[in-house]
């Protein structure tokens, strides 16, 4: 019987107990900003998903009489009034949420996938692979995002897919740089050295150790990027770079279409504008409080 | 029950050393670990697109040392002097800039990735920060079975995990838990269990207790000593404080700014330190006897620790040395030379200082004097 066995110690979970995720969850639940963000996000997503069932009228057909000088405002039948072509504005804002969500999520996923691949390459190999990828990323990032997206969308010849690809491309370098930075930091950490030291192979080190510990900020960034993607999509649509299909109501194009009627029907600009702000605000608040909750600096 | 079943490996490290390595060395009498001229210089880069190297952090700057089988080599030096980097370079966890490391006669630097992977089994590290050394998403079971799995351990892995936990004094229930659920001392036990999982011959323990509560430190030191007896381990124990390594080490090396300045058998180093830096370190250790403590002269060092980016020319210690002489010190770099059998020192004036013909400059009341040997953190 050795000394070390004699002084066996009981495993005492420390005060801070619980898993990292559970702890972050606890902090998130206590943060009013997070709750506000979550409410906005849930509202937005629910309306977007349920738009076809919630919308009282068809989104692309006139449902009332309008002339350029008299566009009826909000009423009991038409909560947000009618638009310049006599369509129900409330219905169009609802459907707009649906399209915003689709465009936002698709372009986010595309951008994340691209950034993930590049970041993984750079972070896993380092060396010249890293240098090449990062120079590329720096170059792209030096162009203002929206400007770059406009260029790409215009080049691709406008349309929904052009918008989604343009926004995705703009986000690729952001995710690439983020993941690569995280992975390089983890690569130098002691637990990775320890794994190397006991003979764990490179592939398992990258996928089993480094990558899982590098993903948290990517998820946070994803939430924040959804906000900018929604705003960017509206911007591109406003500039006429999105789909021309009238059955696809987009907040950005609704804004553009109502410009001429700003004096007679100012509310037509307010509703889609507010919708954009609320959706983007929801994801931003949620993303920022996620970041805070997951940041070890704020751990107590 | 004190002998654990052999892990992983059909060819145990002991038999492997008899001639499994390419050059067939590993003859008894040769040290288990032999380091020659080891340097690790980290480039400092500047610029965005074309990164120019504008200097080097000379973290390890030419180290020679030998560690005999079954011995404990204590490595001491102030924070930032390159102890961790030296330890990692020996295990090739950072790539050395120059120099050779021979382990059991095999050149560690000349291994292919796969043979390096197999060689690593015999040399492990215990880390300075136990929490950082454990993957936060890995249960203890997974931490301890990973080495077994990657080296194709034939036996029952979870039994071996229980056995390792038992060896380091943790209950079997610890296997299902995650690093953040443990106290610092328990985490370090997990780190130690991982280090011994493959029955290594050499363990580099990088400040194994400096992150721990004082009350826990002795337990961990005892555990390391017990394991050495049970498993026949050879240790390099790193510390920033002579007090920690004093009792466990056979030989102590004192490091300053990336280089060894003195090396001696532990008791001789304490009886008579030869290098001015060691003398200063030693005078900073409080002596329990209050009367001796009162009369004793404390040697305080002046000036700041130079940056490893700008290592002073000549003797690297001359900017702070209380024994500095007008000749040689600032111009000529002293080699680590064997002054007497077993006593190595890198100082031009070691004989005169030992004989008392050169005395320390009176700097005890210098307001800029700093005490060494106390952790800065
Ligand atoms: N990857 C790196 N890149 C650049 N510089 C480094 C790197 N690792 C260590 N250094 C520098 O090398 C020097 C030695 O560091 P090292 O960690 O080996 O010191 P140490 O003696 O272990 O100190 P401590 O007692 O604080 O652990 C320090 O100046 C440190 O800043
Ligand atoms: S060589 Fe000179 S400066 Fe260096 S330690 Fe000896 S006395 Fe001091
Ligand atoms: Mg260190």
From TrEMBL, chain A:
ABC transmembrane type-1 domain location: 97-287
Recorded superkingdom: Bacteria
Alphabetical UniProt keywords: Cell membrane, Membrane, Transmembrane, Transmembrane helix, Transport
InterPro entries: BP-dependent_transpt_permease (IPR050366), MetI-like (IPR000515), MetI-like_sf (IPR035906), OppC_N (IPR025966)
Recorded topology in the membrane: Multi-pass membrane protein
Family assignment from sequence similarity: Belongs to the binding-protein-dependent transport system permease family.
Protein name: ABC transporter permease
Organism of this sequence: Planobispora rosea
Lineage: Bacteria, Bacillati, Actinomycetota, Actinomycetes, Streptosporangiales
Automatic annotation (TrEMBL), chain B:
SMART domains for this protein: AAA
Gene3D superfamilies reported for this sequence: P-loop containing nucleotide triphosphate hydrolases
Keyword ATP-binding: yes
Keyword Phosphoprotein among UniProt keywords: no
Cited CDD domains: ABC_NikE_OppD_transporters
GO molecular function: ATP binding; ATP hydrolysis activity
Region Disordered: start-end pairs: 1-23
Residue span(s) of domain ABC transporter: 44-282
Family note: Belongs to the ABC transporter superfamily.
Protein name as it appears in the record: Dipeptide/oligopeptide/nickel ABC transporter ATP-binding protein
Originating organism: Planobispora rosea
């Amino acid at each position: 019987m050795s000394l070390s066995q004699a002084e066996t110690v009981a495993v005492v979970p420390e005060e801070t107990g619980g898993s990292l995720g559970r702890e972050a969850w606890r902090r998130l639940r206590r943060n009013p900003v997070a709750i506000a963000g979550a409410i906005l996000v849930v509202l937005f997503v629910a309306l977007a998903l349920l738009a076809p069932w919630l919308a009282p009228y068809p989104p692309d057909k006139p449902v009332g009489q309008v002339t350029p000088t008299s566009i009826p405002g909000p009423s009991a039948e038409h909560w947000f009034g009618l638009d310049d072509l006599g369509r129900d504005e409330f219905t169009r804002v609802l459907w707009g949420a649906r399209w915003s969500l689709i465009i936002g999520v698709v372009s986010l996923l595309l951008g994340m996938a691209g950034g993930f691949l590049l970041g993984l390459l750079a972070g896993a190999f380092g060396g010249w692979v890293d240098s090449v990828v990062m120079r590329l990323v720096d170059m792209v990032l030096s162009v203002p995002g929206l400007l770059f997206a406009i260029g790409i969308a215009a080049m691709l010849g406008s349309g929904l897919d052009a918008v989604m690809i343009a926004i995705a491309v703009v986000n690729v370098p952001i995710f690439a740089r983020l993941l690569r930075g995280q992975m390089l930091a983890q690569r130098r950490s002691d637990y990775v050295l320890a794994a190397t030291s006991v003979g764990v192979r490179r592939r398992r080190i990258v996928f089993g150790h480094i990558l899982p510990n590098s993903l948290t900020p990517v998820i946070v960034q994803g939430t924040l990027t959804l906000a900018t993607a929604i705003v960017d999509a509206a911007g591109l649509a406003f500039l006429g770079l999105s789909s021309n299909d009238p059955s696809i109501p987009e907040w950005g194009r609704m804004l553009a279409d109502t410009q001429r009627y700003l004096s007679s029907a100012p509310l037509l600009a307010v509703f889609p504008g507010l919708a954009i702000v609320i959706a983007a605000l929801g994801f931003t608040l949620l993303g920022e409080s996620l970041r805070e909750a997951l940041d070890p600096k704020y751990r107590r | 029950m004190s002998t654990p079943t052999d892990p992983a490996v059909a060819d145990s490290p002991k038999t492997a050393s008899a001639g499994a390595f390419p050059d067939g060395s590993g003859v008894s009498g040769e040290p288990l670990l032999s380091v020659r001229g080891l340097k690790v210089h980290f480039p400092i880069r500047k610029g965005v697109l074309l990164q120019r190297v504008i200097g080097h952090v000379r973290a390890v700057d030419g180290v020679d040392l030998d560690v005999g089988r079954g011995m404990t080599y204590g490595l001491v030096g102030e924070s930032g002097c390159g102890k961790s980097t030296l330890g990692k370079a020996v295990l090739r966890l950072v790539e050395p800039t120059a120099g050779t490391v021979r382990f059991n006669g095999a050149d560690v630097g000349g291994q292919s990735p796969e043979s390096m992977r197999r060689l690593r089994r015999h040399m492990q590290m215990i880390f300075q920060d136990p929490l950082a050394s454990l993957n936060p998403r890995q249960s203890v079971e997974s931490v301890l079975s990973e080495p077994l799995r990657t080296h194709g351990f034939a036996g029952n892995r979870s039994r071996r995990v229980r056995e390792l936990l038992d060896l380091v004094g943790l209950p079997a229930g610890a296997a299902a838990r995650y690093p953040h659920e443990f106290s610092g001392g328990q985490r370090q036990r997990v780190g130690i269990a991982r280090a011994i999982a493959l029955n290594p011959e050499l363990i580099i323990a990088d400040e194994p207790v400096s992150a721990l509560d004082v009350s826990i430190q002795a337990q961990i030191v005892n555990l390391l000593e017990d394991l050495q007896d049970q498993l026949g381990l050879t240790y390099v124990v790193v510390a920033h404080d002579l007090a920690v390594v004093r009792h466990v080490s056979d030989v102590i090396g004192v490091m300053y700014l990336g280089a060894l300045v003195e090396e001696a058998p532990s008791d001789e180093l304490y009886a008579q330190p030869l290098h001015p830096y060691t003398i200063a370190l030693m005078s900073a250790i409080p002596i329990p006897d209050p009367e001796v403590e009162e009369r004793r002269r404390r040697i305080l060092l002046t000036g700041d620790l130079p940056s490893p980016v700008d290592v002073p020319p000549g003797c690297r210690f001359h900017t702070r040395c209380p024994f500095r002489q007008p000749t040689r010190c600032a111009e000529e770099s002293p080699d680590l030379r064997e002054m007497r059998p077993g006593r190595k020192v890198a100082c031009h004036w070691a004989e005169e200082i030992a004989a008392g013909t050169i005395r320390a400059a009176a700097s005890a009341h210098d307001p800029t004097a700093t005490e060494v040997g106390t952790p800065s953190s």
